[in-house]
Amino acid sequence: xxxxxxxxxxxxxxxxxxxxxxxxxxxxxxxxxxxxxxxxxxxxxxxxxxxxxxxxxxxxxxxxxxxxxxxxxxxxxxxxxxxxxxxxxxxxxxxxxxxxxxxxxxxxxxxxxxxxxxxxxxxxxxxxxxxxxxxxxxxxxxxxxxxxxxxxxxxxxxxxxxxxxxxxxxxxxxxxxxxxxxxxxxxxxxxxxxxxxxxxxxxxxxxxxxxxxxxxxxxxxxxxxxxxxxxxxxxxxxxxxxxxxxxxxxxxxxxxxxxxxxxxxxxxxxxxxxxxxxxxxxxxxxxxxxxxxxxxxxxxxxxxxxxxxxxxxxxxxxxxxxxxxxxxxxxxxxxxxxxxxxxxxxxxxxxxxxxxxxxxxxxxxxxxxxxxxxxxxxxxxxxxxxxxxxxxxxxxxxxxxxxxxxxxxxxxxxxxxxxxxxxxxxxxxxxxxxxxxxxxxxxxxxxxxxxxxxxxxxxxxxxxxxxxxxxxxxxxxxxxxxxxxxxxxxx
Length: 491
Fold this sequence. Notes:
This protein is of the alpha/beta class. It is built from 13 helices and 19 strands. It has helices spanning 21-30, 99-105, 109-115, 122-135, 196-199, 212-220, 232-244, 276-284, 287-293, 298-301, 306-318, 422-425, 435-450; strands at residues 12-17, 34-37, 52-54, 57-61, 139-141, 143-151, 156-164, 170-183, 187-189, 206-208, 225-228, 252-255, 328-331, 334-342, 346-353, 358-364, 366-369, 373-375, 415-417.
């Protein structure tokens, strides 16, 4: 078993900062890996010559317990990836922390078998992750990490944290030491600048979709509701509000910047852009090429699931059966120029239709901002590492193929990142389907550094598509497809 010392002053092999799905996946995959030879174990006593002490890990999160997007666990909403994209299966199908192991522990394998569900509900995924978080050792909730520094004299990272009580009040300050760190601090709700004045309207419900369920009753009590955002969250919120409003008096307006309420790319070959093969290809591209490519791939992760689109159309159609049209307006191709309050109970949105070059105003009683999420900045947390950090032409951290921050060579430890590398690793960075592969990649690199071994055998090829020429997206041992030769051989 992986060791999890209660004495956090004893150096760890790995400390994880943040316990979302990605670092939870890393912790689950790390559980059971033997550590270095002769390194002191959790009791501080070195093992005998040739003995393998357990890998020592600790993971911190400021939240009192694990919760995954609780404001969006709308009844019936499903994951957009199959259940095989759990914390471990795509790297270790035999892991005791798999979704199937969770079902077995809950005596639900047969019901799941007969349900024939490839895509599970979000609430069930959240329950599965909470089950792992409640049984996996070495997780420290209620611990807010405040700073990370490199101690060159000890060749260790120092991780300062604040221990919080259940009410979020300070209980104690502490420090952990570790040879390597893994940053999984996740994303935060994003509000575009023109919409920020809405947040300053406390008397009018203005809710980011991340908090939708907490504010649902208040939203439903509003006379007119506006949903902003054309992704999956916006679609699910619109559908849930539509179903809850009386026919003919729905009074909902759904606005989107995109040209249409477009389906997510879900073709078999299209999904191969969420494979390790594509990630390697994307990482090898020049920085300018990566930056140009990312915006064009919005439909891979910002579109709407076809089933949700069908459910919305079915609900709208059902409301026409007795004549008339539902009082629901769906308008794509619109951007919000400015927004502000009208009196104390209403908001006014200034809209512009880009193709028509027309403008209008919309008055509403409540707004749901389904405007997505952005990666949390690492700058404050890693201020102590800033002198060692290498940055790209846009000032962003450089991240290598092993998901490590590129640091000055004087730093012998590795700082791995999860879901903070979209600019270097592409659209798959926030995708749950790559969680286990990335966690196994990190652990293979870490264990290669510590012991010269790789605990996980990862596939050499994961896509039928060949991304790029010359086979640069494959490991060298895999032959290039027939008919293609490296560019240097073309005359």
